[in-house]
TrEMBL record:
Single GO molecular function: phosphatase activity
The organism's taxonomic lineage, starting at the top: Bacteria, Pseudomonadati, Pseudomonadota, Alphaproteobacteria, Acetobacterales
Listed InterPro entries: Cof, HAD-like_sf, HAD-SF_hydro_IIB, HAD_sf
CDD domains: HAD_Pase (cd07516)
Protein name as catalogued: Cof-type HAD-IIB family hydrolase
Domain of life: Bacteria
PANTHER family (alphabetical): HAD SUPERFAMILY HYDROLASE-LIKE, TYPE 3, PHOSPHOSERINE PHOSPHATASE
Keyword Kinase set for record: no
Gene Ontology CC: one annotated term: cytosol
Keyword Hydrolase applies: yes
Keyword vocabulary terms for this entry: Hydrolase
């Protein structure tokens, strides 16, 4: 339970599906709410499954000088690229995970702070991801031969039932070796076990010398569950899965109906 004598200092927000609506353009109302947060001396820290480079467009647009988290918390970085944390999966585990994923009809991506490896850069999912994140992939003939310690392995494909099944089976097999969660219905993220958004929240609280309960968290997907659980106040988007709503203190509107901005206006600002 949060100590009410400790004021909120940070809003830690997911990006895609939360701050960003489907067109990936921050709405005028959300921009207004960000200005009101800044006027109240509340920091906005972004926490995303995206690679850090894929977050920079928005960090620059908002002129954020705050610490943010990419790859679900594998990488914690400052506004000018300073790395506070860069946690990778070890090479033997990366090779084992690739081998376990290869029999399935999915795409496998390997990502670290600098690199994004794929076997086919022409697929619809890769092209979409490149357009969204402004990060260009590097195509290789064989991922196993080019395996390296990485921040994130992505298993992705259009069959969302298969992705959900892989999440379940891989958590059974690798729950002590990796954090395995979906950042969208068609994208399964595999990171180091300590690389979660919740762990990132605790790390950012420590860097700012505040308590985790002084952070408000808002998200929309299963990879945001740990983020909300570690926060002083958790807000789920209206379109979020029930598992996230179950750990939230509040549920706002969906991201097509100003859910993020309404959460700030109606839930957050009155509690500052």
């Amino acid at each position: 339970m949060r100590d009410k004598d400790l004021p909120f200092k940070i809003i830690m927000s997911d990006m895609d599906g939360t701050l960003l609506p489907p067109d990936k353009i921050i709405t005028p109302k959300s921009l207004e709410m960000i200005e009101r947060l800044q006027a109240a001396d509340i920091k906005l820290c972004l926490a995303s499954a995206r690679p850090p480079k894929g977050m920079m467009r928005y960090i620059k647009q908002l002129d954020l000088n705050n610490i943010c988290a990419g790859f679900n918390g594998s990488v914690i970085f400052g506004p000018h690229g300073h790395l506070y944390r860069d946690i990778t999966l070890p090479l033997p585990l990366v090779q084992e995970l690739i081998s376990a994923l290869l029999p399935h009809p999915i795409e496998i991506w390997l990502q670290d702070y600098e690199t994004w490896l794929v076997e086919d850069a022409s697929t619809e999912l890769v092209i979409y991801e490149q357009g969204v994140t402004d990060v260009a992939p590097r195509e290789v003939d064989n991922l196993l031969e080019h395996a390296m310690p990485v921040s994130r392995i992505v298993a992705t494909g259009p069959d969302i039932n298969l992705i959900a099944s892989l999440e379940h089976s891989f958590n059974n097999s690798y729950k002590d070796q990796a954090a395995i969660t979906r950042s969208s219905p068609y994208m399964l993220d595999i990171t180091a076990p300590v690389a979660t958004k919740g762990a990132a929240l605790r790390a950012i609280a420590e860097l700012y010398k505040i308590q985790p309960q002084q952070i408000i968290a808002i998200g929309d997907a299963e990879n945001d569950i740990s983020l909300l659980e570690e926060s002083g106040l958790g807000i789920a988007m209206g379109h979020a899965p029930q598992a996230l709503k179950n750990v939230a203190s509040f549920v706002t509107d969906d991201n097509e109906n100003e859910g993020w901005a309404n959460a700030v206006e109606k839930i957050i600002l009155p509690r500052l």
